Amino acid sequence: MPFVALSPLHRIDIAEAVHYLVGKPQENDFPLHTIMRKNAPDGRELLRAELILAGRKTREAHAAAWTYPVHFLKTYHPLSFHPDPAAEYENARIAAEILGTPPPIGHGTHDLRLPFFPGKSLSRFSPFTDVEPPERCLGIARETPPASLIGLWRLAEGAFQQVERLHARRFIHGDLELHNIVVCTAPIGIFLIDFESSVPAFSGTDEEWEKKRQADLKPLFELAVFLQAGLGRQRGELAERAEAAIPRLFRSPDTFRNRLEQADRESV
């Protein structure tokens, strides 16, 4: 199958039957795959997320769509209360500039166009996703093969470094759950997504800043604690700050501290 660039880093193969539309676009976008739909209780569609092949109208409105005709399109229903695509576009543009990742493609009144990262969310790699209560994760960590935990630790460190780069510029992500961290395999890379709740230049008090900053880091700190429950304590800033945050993360902090100490002894 012919390949088409998704970004400077990624490409995708598309069916030969529609590949001609890359060079000779039809008037409107051609949908390739529906990623997600969100409906109101009355059945009305509020949000649709798709992988599309850009049509002529889109390319005339957004020059980057000529370079990356296959991209991610998020469309909000015109009558729904939805975030401002222009604000989300600007947040994503600033984040891309800070992180050195592919910038957004464009936006309209009710839609946003972004590069598509062909990977899986970090939440899908983690064996701790949606496990309650969190104390159960300690047992899961002990049963998970060390090689898997080591791989997840490297991914968590990479995501942590990106968040720290944003925070160094007073940029708050605002919704940094593990499902908003995408892991690509070809080439290997970690990408933060979904900037609709972001604050690109936070100007609140130091106390407000620290609260927002800790909220961004909470999912990664929790993951770091769970991983060390299987691996033993690791070195570096992520390990140290995650352990220091244990009293804020869990209702029974001593349970987690004791498990880290036990994991240390088991790793010797």
Description of the molecule:
The chain is an alpha+beta fold and 268 residues long. The chain folds into two domains: 114 residues, no CATH class; 148 residues, Transferase(Phosphotransferase), domain 1 (Orthogonal Bundle). The protein has eleven helices and ten strands. The strands form three sheets. A five-stranded antiparallel sheet has the order 3-4-5-7-6, covered by helices on one side. A three-stranded antiparallel sheet has the order 8-9-10. Strand 1 and strand 2 form a beta hairpin. Helix 6 crosses helix 8. The longest helix is centred in the last third of the chain and has 26 residues. The termini are far apart.
Task: Please give a handful of descriptors for the protein shown.
Transferase(Phosphotransferase), domain 1; 268 residues; single chain; globular; three-stranded antiparallel β-sheet; 19% strand; alpha+beta
User: What is the top-level CATH class of the largest domain?
Assistant: Mainly Alpha
- Number of helical stretches of at least 4 residues: 11
CATH superfamily of the largest domain: Transferase(Phosphotransferase) domain 1
Give the helices and strands as they follow along the chain.
Answer: EEHEEHHEHEEEHHHEEHHHH
Topology-level CATH name of the largest domain: Transferase(Phosphotransferase), domain 1
Strand order of the largest sheet: 3-4-5-7-6
Domain module tally: 2
How many β strands by DSSP?
10
Q: Which regions are unreliable across 5 or more consecutive residues at pLDDT < 50?
A: none
Categorize the overall geometry: globular
How is the quaternary structure best described? single chain
Q: From the alpha-carbon coordinates, what is the Rg to the nearest angstrom?
A: 21 Å
* Fraction in helix: 40-55%
Distance between termini? 51 Å
Summarize model confidence as the mean pLDDT.
94
Portion of residues in beta strands equals: 15-25%
Task: Give the helix/strand class.
Answer: alpha+beta
